[in-house]
Amino acid sequence: MTPPPPAGNRGDTVTELLGQIADTGRDAARGGYSRPVLSGSERDLLAWFVEQAQRRGLDVDVDRNGIAWAWWNPSGADLRGSVVTGSHLDSVPGGGAFDGPLGVASALVAVDHLRARGITPSRALGVAVFPEEEGSRFGVACLGSRLLTGELAPKRALALTDPDGTTLAEAWGRAGMDPAHLGRDDEALARIGTFVELHVEQGRGLIDLDAPVAVASSVLGHGRWRLSFTGEGNHAGATLMADRRDPVVAAAAAVLAARQSALAHADARATVGRIVPVPGGTNVIASRVDAWLDVRHPDDAVTAAVVAEISERAAEAARAEGCELVVTQESFSATAHFDGVLRDRLTRVLSGAPVLATGAGHDAAVLAGHVPSAMLFVRNPTGVSHSPAEAVEDDDAEQGAAALATALEHLLT
Ligand code: GLV
Ligand code: MN
Ligand code: MN
């Protein structure tokens, strides 16, 4: 359970709000936070969000894809075509404090700013929290926004499994939601007239520009592939080196191929961040290894070429080791460009804030294919993300929420 906030911390600022959840989902082994979707810690964060939204008098509902919505609708307007902001509360394993929660906390504080500025919008403002943005439990990032928009078929989503073999359908049911209702939701999508997501910057752009807030231009195309190598499990001492069919050796070649192939294509990024040997014992030659490859490039054809190169080199290494390789694409998102008119309008109202591209994926990028969408980035003094070293200065966090309020005010009035 998220502990009660310290006396005096009502959650009136972004720093106070994040302070209230600072102990939720801490990962003592990895450092930072592990808040997988539908885990106890992520559900506690959702309860915290609902409580803070209700404290502000917002009406909260959770839709059939597990997206939580909190509505400020002082004029009782039809929710279709509303202005919506928000982000996510799940994290990567051992992630930072800001990736996701900064956007949620800033959205709540932005509502306070709008009220304090005396704004009574004729349209509704929604604050949305999307589940499984990181894909760190079920493997497909931006799961909530992909289901909402129909980019992920419910049948495929329901069959996804977590590292313990629990299907998404089972996890959904255990969380008290009906998995039969997952899927494209035209009614919920129609409520989003414009979407703006605030996010911690996951790079050094704003440090170099000496500015606290930027407007996003684009999100790099990216995808995930699973490389499954099968060999022969055996004894580490009793098996001669010449007699082995060790899938770990083939997987190691794939890791090196990823580095080399990415270096050979300007602007490409290739990462193997997760390798699981089965059964996974120090004195056991593995029978199987799954390695997950993440490849990104602005040109989707180059991404495909890099993946093909790595797969070919991995297959060669597998053959040389007497192993089999199966490559499966688990997800892909083409490079997304945010709406240029919206981007320019936000840049103008934010007094010429800089415009930055990002290499990180976001629900806003999925939504950008369906509704006008934009993002704001808040300076990260370490430039590091998906790590406990991710950081945001208190003053920048409050400036970010004020900038978000200004952007929303412009869109609402
Ligand atoms: C999510 O943060 C991603 O870029 O993978
Ligand atoms: Mn992330
Ligand atoms: Mn994020």
Distance between the termini: 39 Å
Number of helices: 13
How many whole angstroms does the radius of gyration measure? 22 Å
Low-confidence stretches: none
Estimated share of beta-strand residues: 15-25%
Mean pLDDT: 97
Major sheet: 9 strands, mixed
Give the structural class.
alpha/beta
**Count of extended strands:** 15
Element order: H for helix, E for strand? HHEEEHEHHHHEHEEEHEEEHEEHEHEH
Taken from the alpha-carbon principal axes, the silhouette is globular
Identify every distinct bound molecule in the structure, by name, code or SMILES. Answer: glyoxylic acid, manganese (II) ion
Helix content: 25-40%
Description:
With 413 residues, the protein is of the alpha/beta class. Helix content is 34%, strand content 23%. The chain has 13 helices and 15 strands. Strands 1, 2, 3, 4, 5, 6, 13, 14 and 15 form a nine-stranded mixed β-sheet that branches. Strands 9-11-7-12 form a four-stranded antiparallel β-sheet, covered by helices on one side. β3 (82-88), α3 (101-116) and β4 (125-130) form a beta-alpha-beta unit. It is globular and about 75 Å long. Bound molecules: glyoxylic acid (GLV) and manganese (II) ion (2 copies). One manganese (II) ion is lined by residues 92, 99, 134, 360, 386.
